[in-house]
Structures are given as C-alpha cells and as structure tokens.
Design brief:
The chain is mostly beta strands and 1028 residues long. The longest helix is centred in the last third of the chain and has 24 residues. It has 8 helices and 66 strands. The relative contact order is 0.06. The C terminus is likely disordered. Strands 16, 17, 18, 19 and 20 form a 5-stranded antiparallel sheet that branches. Strands 6, 7, 8 and 11 form a 4-stranded antiparallel sheet that branches. It is found in: Cell membrane; Cell projection. Keywords: Angiogenesis, Cell membrane, Cell projection, Differentiation, Disulfide bond, Glycoprotein, Membrane, Repeat, Signal, Transmembrane, Transmembrane helix. Pfam families: TSP1_ADAMTS, TSP1_spondin, TSP1_TSH7A-B_C, TSP_1. It is a single-pass type I membrane protein.
Length: 1028
C-alpha cells in the first residue's frame, strides 16, 4: 500500500500482439505493455517519467525466410480392409456400411520459392496424410423376375408365312448406388416359337355347266301348276374339293382351309316359241387406241326375222359397243397423310435391353403413307395393283427426338445464412436446355428432391438448401488498455478530479493467437460492443486512492431476482488527515434479461432428405439442429446449454428415402391389323402399344401416340343394288289384286354402300358373286292390290321407329330393343267402315336402343279446361308410355260444387259469380249467393249509391215488407218468389173464366119447327191426296 502523498501507479497491462510475424534485417517483432497513474503525488514527491510507464520487448524473432508444410484437399473415401466397422452407422448424415481412409498430399514449401525436401520443414508441424472415414453403403441393382412368355400361335402356319416369336421382359426397380452391382444388360428376351405344322392345301375345283333346266313359275311362286317348256331356268355345275395333289378330299376340308364354296347354280333362259331368237354375238372389233370403242353384232334367226316386234332395236339391240380396254391408268391421291411411322429394322440375333430398343426407335427418319386411287380412262375405280405395287404413296418424314432437361453442375455451397445457430446454406443450378418433345422434365417443386425453383426474366434456376450450424462466438471484441485519464480543467497542473479516458476496439477471430488481425466489425455481435470511452477520476494528492472495481459476481441460474450481485475494490493509498475514502463495495439486484439470463434448447424443423454425394435417389437422412436460446431471444453457443446440463429429448436424425425417377416403358408395337374394310376408301390398318410402366418422378414421360393407323389400298367395291318397287300392276283390270317387282344390279363404288359420294356404275354380275343366291335372299316379286272405288285399303308401311328399350326409372335390364312400324286404314266410304281391316302394326328386334322417359305435359288453363298429352324425353309426343293413373285432369272442378244461381267455377278453383253479379261470401269463405250488381245494365247509374241502398242486412222492417212484395220475381237467393206462383195461378183461372163467359154469350137460340130443316154437317176425311 502506498503511503500518503505517494504517486500511485496501476499494474502493468497485458502484452500487446506482436507487430510482425517474423524478423528480418529491416523489421522485427515488438510487443509493449503500459501502466497509468492512479493517484497524483504530494508536493514533495513525483511520479515516474512517461517512458517508465511503458515497456517493450521483441517477439517472433525467427527469420522470415521459413519453410512450411502445405497440404492438399482430402481425396475420396476408399475402402481399407485393415479398418473394421461393425454394423452400419452415420457419417455426415449418410448411411455407412464399411470403414475407409482418405489420403492427401503434404509437401514442404519454402516461402516465395516452392516445394523443397521434407527435411527442411519441422517434423513436429507436419500435417496428417491419412484419416479414417466411413464408406456409404453399396446398393446393387435390383430387377424383377422375367414376365411370362407371350403366347405363340396354336394353329398351323401358311406355307409362305413368317416365323412367329415370343418375348418376355423384366423391369429395373433399383439402380446401383455407390459402386454396387450394375444392372444386367438383358432386360428383354425374344425367341422363336416352336415349329408348327404347315397348313394343308385344299382348293375348290369347278366342272362344266350342265344344260339349262327350266324352273316352272309355279315352283318359283310356291304354287302348283302346269310345266313350262320355255322361260327362265337354272344351270348347274359340279364343285369338288381337291388337295394339293388334285385328289378328291372331303368338302369340310375346303370349307375350313379354302373359304366358301363357289356358286353351283346360275340363271339361264330357254327361248319360247314366240320369243325373239338371235344368233350368237360376234367377236368384238379391233380397238384403234386407248379411249376408243369396240363393237360386236348379232342377227335375228328363224321366224324372228319376220316378226315386227323383234326388229325393234330399242328393245332387242343387234349391235353392242363398249369402251376398249385401256392400259393407261391414272393415280389420284386420296385422303390425308398418315402420321410419321418409323421403319422397323431390328437387328436379328441380338437381344438388346428393352429400354434401349424403345428409345432407339423413338425418333429419326420414317415414312408416312397416303392412299392412292387407281382410275381408268372413264374415271372408274380399278384394282390398285394396276397403278402401283402397294397402292399407297410414301413420303419420307422425320420424327423429332425427345430432348431432356439439362442443368448445369451444382455451384459451390454458400456460407451459412446465420453466423450463430441453425441456418441454411444454398447451392444452385442453371437451366442449360429446356425439355422438348417429351423429354425428361426439369425437377419439380418437390421437397423430396430438396429443390426450390425460381423463374425470373426467362432464367430458370434450381436451388438446393440444406441446414447448417453457424458457429457462435467465432468473432469477439478486443480492446486496448484504457488511455490516461484526461482532466477537463484549465487550472494549473497537476490537475485532478473527474475526467475521460478511451481505448481502441477491434473485432477479431477468436483463438487467432498472438498475431491477430482485425476483421469487419459487422461480424461481431453489435449488442455486446464494449464502450469506447468512459468517465474516470484522478484523485488529488491528499485524497484516498482506490483500486479498479472487480468483476460483478455471477447471478444464479436460473435467474433469481431475489438475489443480489456484488463487486469490490480496495484502498491503494490512504488519504491525508482524516479524509474519508469512497465505498469499497457495490450491490445490485439480479434482473432477468438485464443482469442475468435463463437458457433453453430449441429444435429446428426437419430438413429435406439428404443423399450422399452424386446420388440422385435412394436412402438418405433427414436432420434437424439444436439452438441454445437465451431468455431474451438471442441465440448463443450450444456449449452454454451443455454446461448447464439442460435436458435434450429430441431425436436429431432419421432415415428417409427419395424415390428414383423411372422413364416410361412402352411395349413393342403390335402387328398391323387387317384392313377395317375389304374395299373402298375407308379401310385403315392399326397397330398399338401399351404402357408397361408409367414415368415416375422426373422420368421421361410416356409418348402420347399409343396407336398408329395407315390407309389401306383403295380397291373397288362391288355391291348388289336393289331397285325400288315398281307400281302395282293388275293384269287386265284397273284395280284389284296384282304384282309389283324390283331389279337386282351389280354396281361398283368407292366405299360403304349406299353412302358413297362417288357415282356408281353397273358391271358384270360375276364381280358381285352368285346372283341366284342373292335373288333367293331378296324378295323381287311381291303381291299387291290396287283399291277399287269405295274399297277400304291399307297404306304403305311407315318408316321404322327408333330403337327403344323397356326401361324402369331410366335403366334398362335388356340388351335388345324393339322397333315398330304400321299401316293405316284408308276409309273411302263410311258405309264400308265395318268391313275395313284393322290397322296393322309390326315390330322386330334391334340393337343400340335408348332408354326414354315419358312425362305428362299440359297446356295452360282456358275456361277450366286444358289439353293433356304424353311426351317422350326426345321431344316426340306419343300415345302410351305415360302411366294412366298419373294423368293430370283436363277439367278443373270446384269443391264444394258451384250450385248457386249465376255462379261458376273460377280458374283459382273457387266459386264466383257471372258478369253483372256480385259475390256474397259466408263466414267460411265460400260463396253464399250472387246478387245482381245495381246499374249493371245502365252504365250511367250511381253504382255507389245503388249498392248502398241494396246492401244486404242494412234495410228496415218496412223496407223488408215492401221488398218482399215488390215487383221482383226472384229473391236474393235466386229463387222465384211466392207471389209469382200466385199471380200465375190467378191468371190461369181468369183465362178459364173468360173462355166460359164467351161460350155462354156466343151460344145460338132454339128455332121453331116452321123453319127449314137443319143441314147435315159436312164430314171431312183425308184420303192421302196431296191437294188436301
């Protein structure tokens, strides 16, 4: 302790950092330390000089030309059999199965020169060249078992047929990872089917036609009759089945292997005696060129030459002409081009991977096809073989190949987003090429793939964010010693009292050693920046000098605000005389978030599934991080919570999986189907393929084209054309029973008959097939009748109705519907109505029927009447179909009925009065009676006054008396009053009295006998004569 009046000095400060890292001829490392004056001395004493308050020493005196070790980055982890790890574990979040080692290269370097021999560098500072590591688990490729072999044909093969094959495949369900076993090359196998026998060869053999045999009309009409000697007949020929050696075989063999039997019958004609007979046709004349005509002739023979009707050339032509056969044909394109179809040229004998086979022919050069119509000079369709071999036009086309999404390599990881605690670090990829034409898509916004995306100004970037832990307390504030306390006074020196002192503040990396360089101040915690200046007190010579305050004592954890903390100082120099010293102890209460803090753990959210380096799918790890949080919300170093021994119950890692992307896998194209139409322009061939495996994740999607079509050659269609029925003909009469007929003609057309837009042309019957069989299938002759005047007759059949199903509540329980048609009865004379036939209905089954619902429809009310009809769901009004019990009423009735005079039922369903009468209602709201509106006949009458005088219930007794006998024949209730009956009876009696009086006065007096005798009265009798 200093004596009173002595100069008081502080203790020496710590040595400063070395000014240089090494020594050279021009510079050397130096450190300094200082001490300050705490108390000024008395009058007879002094403080040491300023130079005595600072000390210096050398540091880092080793020369600057030094040798040092330089190490490269660690190499990949390779397997090391000498190290053994039992079981699996985790290393940096990756599943591990084996121990390995990492190697790096260490070289001795001379500063400013380069590598030198290792002995020049200190062996004690040599870095390690090996370190252990854990290898991620190897995962072999996993494929499914082969599928079943596709089916082989189980029938015989035609003699010129191709060899059939069958195939099977298997699917990759896991790709190899981390050097696991590669996938097998053979994922698709194909082999030839077992040899089948060649189909036997059978054919139909036809023989010569027999002479024409007459077919009587009675047989044709199904009636008995006399045998004809001429007319229409049939020719017959034999048809047999032979094998490839022309030996007779069973007919069933040809029906199975050679198709339908050729026609055995054809129509012929045996001329009658009166028929016109002709010679055989001559040969056609020579043709003069393409497009010219050729002719042939015949002549009349026998008695036909003398018959006038046989010489009519319009009925019996003797010359026929036809266009000459022309070898010049015109090809005309028809329809649209097909889609581009890739040529199929599989390499024989090689079994490539099935995925490779499909991707190999997914694009490139192919052909598209278009139908070509082959036409002759008359613009008629002919066999396409006359114009080209295939009947199709071909054009080279190109199918663009799919381009996958291509991204750049990952950029370097960014620094952790937070300097302290859990944060994120990010790396990114740039879009180099967009997907095109069904290529693999770019990664989706999917947490399973740890990707986030942005699209700004046509720039596509993929980000990957992973959790990271920022190292808390990595940087710290460092302060230099406080400067001398500067007294703000103008008094004479030495000055004493209160002043100000300051020091420098730097932000440095913690643990940097003696040679510490400052870093950016933003890296240090701004909330904990030390003060740069403070007030100070320089005691005067006679005053007490105290030491610096000690550090505050620590508050308890957790914070207890009932506890105080304390700091102390001691006396360094006693005062002169009896002057007192300042306090030596200070206390303050522990205040939460000010002088003391509580701490707790906080766990972050789970990260996305983290895979091993270069892996794109498979097993991974999800992690989450711990943060140590101070009670004021500030994140501090984890070691704080660890030192406090806080409980940590959370699991920080768990296994996860990212599904691997799989490309879509398609089957092979099937064989082309047969043409959908055997002739015409609508025929197409189709082939298809199916999806064996849908694309998964970012795999290449399935092609949209799963079926392809190409046109068939346009061959002419030959069809029997049935003409309309002729008018009914009655032989020898104008009405009665007769016959009508129609003809059968073979025509050629382009497409399905009769919807062909091209005109048709009659051709030879042989091109349409067996005419006799067709005639037997069609009704060419039909009885008919022509009604005579006054007869009842039926109209022609109506058109068939639409196909209808029997339905219940809109659902049908049958597959076959019914169609109907009818014939109406035409009644010409009403007297014959009873003898008319009934209306005829006819139904037959049909397919493709629809369920119809039926609903009653009504018109608006008109005078309490309306129309009611049944309507089908397609808008057709029908008879029947609706339930009769649900039929709405057509007449509206009032209840109770309107029986009062001059009343009627209104449209509202209540009783009202006729025009000119006013309703009087009873207490129940029903019509009581109708009273005539006063002045209804005289429009100028005062209705208001009259209605007031005649208001029911408002009259006096006198008025009632006179009103009872007033000249009104009807009472208020509409009934005839009693005085009307009395007046009528009195009038009748008066008329009888007048007749009696008149009879008495008009009676003649008796005559005397002298008068002439009485005349005999005249008796009149009606004899039926008209004159009477």
């Amino acid at each position: 302790m200093a004596c009173p009046g002595d100069c008081v000095l502080s203790s020496w400060s710590d040595w400063s950092s070395c000014s240089h890292s090494c020594s050279s001829k021009n510079s050397e490392g130096r450190q300094s330390r200082t001490r300050t004056v705490l108390g000024l001395p008395g009058e007879d004493k002094t403080c040491p000089a300023a130079t005595a308050l600072e000390e210096w020493r050398t540091c880092n005196d080793h020369p600057c030309v030094i040798f040092y070790w330089e190490a490269s980055s660690w190499g990949p982890c390779i397997e090391d059999s000498s190290m053994n790890v039992n079981g699996t574990g985790y290393w940096n979040g990756t599943d591990t199965c084996a121990a390995g080692v990492q190697i790096r290269k260490v070289v001795c370097m001379k500063m400013g020169v380069g590598p030198v021999v290792p002995k020049r560098c200190p062996d004690s500072a040599r870095p390690d060249t090996f370190r252990p590591c854990l290898l991620p688990c190897k995962k072999d490729c996993i494929v499914t078992l082969f599928s079943e072999w596709t089916a082989c044909p189980n029938i015989c093969l035609p003699g010129n047929g191709s060899v059939h094959t069958q195939s099977r495949y298997r699917i990759i369900i896991q790709l190899p990872v981390n050097g696991g076993q590669e996938c097998p090359d053979t994922l698709y196998e194909e082999r030839e089917c077992e040899a089948l026998s060649v189909c036997p060869t059978y054919r139909w053999k036809t023989h010569q036609w027999h002479p024409c045999t007459l077919v009587p009309d009675s047989v044709q009409q199904g009636m008995t009759g006399a045998t004809e000697s001429c007319g229409k007949g049939l020719e017959m020929r034999g048809v047999s089945c032979v094998d490839e050696y022309d030996e007779v075989a069973a007919v069933s063999e040809c029906l199975r292997w050679a198709g339908p039997m050729p026609s055995r019958f054809r129509s012929c004609w045996v001329p009658c005696r009166d028929d016109c007979t002709f010679s055989a046709w001559s040969k056609f004349t020579e043709c003069t060129g393409c497009g010219s005509q050729r002719t042939r002739k015949r002549t009349l023979t026998g008695r036909s030459r003398k018959q006038e009707r046989c010489q009519k050339e319009d009925l019996y032509p003797l010359v026929e002409s036809e266009p000459c056969p022309c070898d010049e044909f015109v090809s005309r394109p028809y329809g649209n081009w097909s889609a581009c179809i890739l040529s199929e040229t599989p390499e024989q004998g090689s079994l490539q991977g099935w995925r490779g086979r499909r991707e190999e022919r997914a694009c490139g050069q192919g052909l598209r096809y278009r139908a070509v119509a082959c036409l002759d000079q008359q613009n008629q369709l002919v066999n396409p073989d006359l114009c080209s071999e295939t009947g199709l036009a071909e054009d080279v086309c190109h199918m663009p190949c799919p381009l996958d999404c291509k991204l750049s390599d990952w950029s370097a990881w960014s620094t952790c987003s937070t300097p302290c605690g859990s944060g994120l670090k990010i790396r990114s990829k740039w879009l180099r090429e967009k997907p095109f034409n069904g290529g693999r898509p770019c990664p989706k916004l999917d947490l399973k793939n740890q990707a986030q995306f942005t699209m700004t100004f046509c720039t596509y970037r993929v980000y990957e964010a992973v959790p990271c832990q920022g190292e808390c307390g990595q940087y710290e504030w460092v302060t230099d010693p406080w400067s001398v306390c500067t007294i703000n006074t103008v008094d004479k020196l030495p000055a004493c009292g209160e002043g100000v002192q300051s020091h420098k503040i730097r932000c440095v990396r913690r643990g940097g050693g003696d040679q510490v360089s400052s870093v950016n101040v933003t890296l240090c915690d701004q909330d904990e920046i030390p003060p740069q200046a403070q007030t100070c007190t320089l005691p005067c010579p006679n005053e007490c000098v105290m030491s610096q305050w000690s550090q505050w004592s620590t508050c308890p954890r957790p914070c207890d605000e009932s506890v105080v903390r304390m700091r102390t100082r001691y006396m360094v120099r006693p005062p002169v005389d009896d002057r007192g010293c300042p306090e030596s102890n200070q206390t303050e209460t522990c205040i939460l978030n000010t002088t003391c803090f509580n701490y707790y753990y906080n766990v972050s959210n789970w990260s996305t599934c983290q895979l091993s380096e270069h892996a794109i799918c498979g097993q991974g790890t999800r992690t989450r991080l711990l943060d140590c949080i101070r009670s004021d919300g500030k994140i501090v170093d984890l070691s704080v919570c660890e030192e406090l021994g806080l409980p940590q119950p959370w699991r920080l890692a768990m296994n996860c999986a990212v599904h691997c992307p799989f490309n879509c896998i398609l089957s092979d194209w099937s064989s082309w189907t047969e043409c959908s139409h055997t002739c015409g322009s609508k025929g197409v061939m189709t082939r298809s393929r199916t999806v064996l495996q849908q694309a998964h994740e970012e795999g290449r999607p399935c092609a949209s084209q799963l079926s392809q079509t190409k046109p068939c050659p346009i061959s002419p269609c030959y069809t029997w054309l049935l003409s309309d029925w002729s008018p009914c003909r009655v032989e020898g009469a104008d009405c009665g029973e007769g016959r009508r007929e129609r003809n059968l003609t073979c025509v050629v057309h382009w497409t399905d008959w009769p919807d062909s837009p091209q005109p048709h042309k009659a051709v030879e019957d042989e091109k349409c097939g067996d005419r006799v069989r067709k005639e037997s299938e069609q009704e060419l002759l039909q009885p008919c009748s022509v009604p005579c005047p006054g007869d009842c007759h039926l109209t022609d059949w109506s058109l068939w109705s639409s196909c209808q199903l029997t339905c219940l509540e809109g659902r049908s329980f049958e597959m076959v519907g019914r169609q109907a048609r009818s014939r109406a009865v035409v009644v010409q004379v009403l007297e014959n109505q009873d003898s008319c036939p009934p209306q005829v209905f006819e139904t037959h089954p049909c397919k493709g029927g629809k369920c119809h619902s039926y609903e009653w429809r009504t018109s608006a009310w008109n005078e309490n009447e309306r129309s009611v009809w049944c309507q089908r769901s397609d808008g057709v009004n029908v008879t029947g179909g609706c339930f009769p019990q649900n039929r709405p009423t057509t007449v509206r009735h009032c209840h109770p009925p309107c029986t009062k005079p001059f009343s009627h039922c209104k449209q509202r369903g209540v009783c009202g009065c006729e025009r000119g009468y006013t309703e009087v209602m009873n207490t129940h709201g029903f019509l009581d009676y109708c009273t005539k509106t006063p002045g209804a006949d005289n429009k100028k009458a005062d209705v208001k006054t009259s209605s007031g005088r005649l208001k029911p219930g408002g009259t006096t007794q006198i008025q009632d008396f006179f009103g009872e006998w007033s000249l009104q024949p009807l009472g208020p209730d509409g009934r005839i009053k009693l005085w009307v009956y009395g007046l009528t009876a009195g009038g009748f009696i008066l008329i009888l009295f007048l007749i009696a009086v008149a009879f008495l006065f008009c009676k003649p007096t008796k005559q005397s006998k002298s008068t002439s005798p009485p005349q005999k009265p005249l008796t009149l009798a009606y004899d039926g004569d008209v004159d009477m």
